[in-house]
Amino acid sequence: MVIPGEQPFFAPPGQGHESSDQCRILVVDDDDALRRTLPRVLAREGRQFAECGSVGEAIAILEREHFALVLLDYRLPDATGLDLLDWLTHQHRDEAVIVISGEDAIDAAIGALRGGADDYVRKPYHVAQLQRAVDSTLHKATLERANRAMSQRLRASERLHRFLVESSPDLIFTLDTEGRFSYLNPRVRPLLGYERTALLRRPFSTLVMPEDIDRINSLMFARGNTPGESFNIELRLRRSRDEPTEGSSESITVSLTVIPMPDREGRRSTGLYGVARDISERKRAEEIITFQAYHDQLTRLPNRVLFKDRLELAIAQAQRRTGALAVMFVDVDRFKLVNDTFGHAEGDALLRGIAARLSSTLRRGDTLARLGGDEFTVLLPDINHPEDAETIARKIVDALTPPFRLSHGDFRATVSIGIALYPRDGDGAEDLTRHADIAMYQVKRSGKNAFRFFDPELNTHYRERITLENDLRLALERSEFELYYQPQISLKGKRVVGMEALLRWNHPTHGQIGPATFIPVAEEIGMIGDISHWVLERACGQLAQWRDAGFSDLRMSLNLSPHDFSRKDVVEMVTECVERHRLPSSQLELEITESMMMQDSAGVAAKVRAMRDAGLSVAIDDFGTGYSALAYLQKFPVSTLKIDRSFVRDLDGPSTNPIISAITGIARGFGLQLIAEGVERMEQAETLRALGCDIMQGYLFAHPAPAEQATAWLNVAPEIDFAAP
């Protein structure tokens, strides 16, 4: 039990109360009423109380906590108060103790006081008597503790100061009024190699390097006679050539603090007290840290921070002189291929080699920096014409023509370079660097291994791209996506046998946007997975509605992005959706591109095989436009080939396009269904039918339309002419 007090730590009669955070009192008494009463009677501000009823309980509490005072009953159930006093003595505890006893014999009081009690109060007692005893004991204990602490500090002070001076890692010394050593601590020997006795009475300038002597003498003699003033300076002290020291250099750099020592009156100086701290390692570390802060650790080139500083300075100078400058953004082409194929150590070696060749092409005064990864920037100050920057860009491209010799063989590196000119392309460091970066990315998209100047139209394009990205991130949330459907027609059956789900984005400002515009963006920003999941859910839901309306043999076709096949759970995602909508697996057809098969045949083939095992149909979209090979058709257990619209567009007659003839033969040979897309003219349909292709889709039959219109097509009687759009 802890009871907060209401009065200070101790209050000797006639004095103000002194507070203490440690005024905790333990009441040890087997009388419950007394244990409850004493905290109220003795309450003071800052006091706290704990209580127990036996010696054993008291020892248990004292082993956990410390108290300022113990109020101890003489007679306790398990022992006497003397036993607890013995325990406190053996444990070297400093709690004050007041024994409260009803014993009449004087021996009890003598035994308690001899046992270490600070006071003895006989029962019955007056409350004021007990209060005075507690206040007096606490006051006395506080004074004794203070006196003991003060004595210990005084005794330790001399030892401490002697130890600090003699054992200090710093050189500590005193100088007389003439600037000669009157004392040096032992540190002078390992630090500088001099014996203390050899330096006594010799001038301090004996240790100072020649170039610093005038500076230190002017400070010491200018201020040495003014007590109370001190100064701090960095200088170099010479090492002895005759004795070994902690370093190999001829001098060390120290931070020197000098304080005048006043006489008794404090009016004049009797000499100087100095402390010299060796900061040689710190200075070297600062130089290293400064270098690391402004340079790339791999190539030792300036980093982004230093490049920006130099660019801002160059811009300021160009503004004063009405001059021009150029900024290049250089990105290594296919660098990831080196890291992935040969490892990062080889990649680092390549970057160092590229940095060396880039440096060799620049003028004195130009700055080459590495921003990180495989990105470099170049500052070309003082250019007179854009052709100057073009000349250096060509030199860079030519310098990288010879192959780099890596441990695994030769590698020919190329770079894409974007160039921004000041003041034409911007008047600030950020704008110039960003515009050069934009120009560089345009080179990347145009085939790499070239250079290009920034064009303001590129900036407009990138602003539009950023806006498109931001809007696309909100499109799902705002329900702006919609599925359109285009029917797949069986000419033989004169009916709709399938629907291809086509995604549209109903942009609130730009209207309807086709997937060719936003799907690449979605893939780049990592949204394609969520979009594909939405398409799958919506298409399966629509197919379920059509099945409930009686179109039980209708097939739904939809495209999956190559990025979807990088997901480990793509098969589970599709099959779970099909099962949830209670659809036959064979009525959902997933379209993959031919190029995707070539990129990761093993991984994609396994997932295609799993889809086919689950009963799903898989079609190769745009078949024939890539690198079709029979070996891939054997590896990929697809069910359908879709003839690309580029072949259908040029179709004039049954013998004018041997590729389509070959594709139809491949489909028959592998037992695959064949669909022609992009059919727009009746002549094309008739030629395809003659070649053995029955199922078609295209504008000849219908444009993609919302689900309501697609439902109307399903309800059209078979004799309706499908040639009408």
Automatic annotation (TrEMBL):
Residues 157-220 form the PAS domain. One of its GO terms (molecular function) is cyclic-guanylate-specific phosphodiesterase activity. Pfam families: EAL (PF00563), GGDEF (PF00990), PAS (PF00989), Response_reg (PF00072). Residues 465-718 form the EAL domain. Transmembrane segments: none annotated. The modification 4-aspartylphosphate is found at D73. Gene3D superfamilies: 3.30.70.270, 3.40.50.2300, EAL domain (3.20.20.450), PAS domain (3.30.450.20). One of its GO terms (biological process) is phosphorelay signal transduction system. Residues 323-456 form the GGDEF domain. Residues 1-20 are annotated as: Disordered. It catalyses: 3',3'-c-di-GMP + H2O = 5'-phosphoguanylyl(3'->5')guanosine + H(+). CDD domains: EAL, GGDEF, PAS, REC. Residues 24-138 form the Response regulatory domain. Residues 231-291 form the PAC domain. Keywords: Phosphoprotein. NCBIfam families: GGDEF (TIGR00254), sensory_box (TIGR00229). PANTHER family: BIOFILM ARCHITECTURE MAINTENANCE PROTEIN MBAA (PTHR44757:SF2), DIGUANYLATE CYCLASE DGCP (PTHR44757). This is Two-component system response regulator. It comes from Parazoarcus communis SWub3 = DSM 12120.
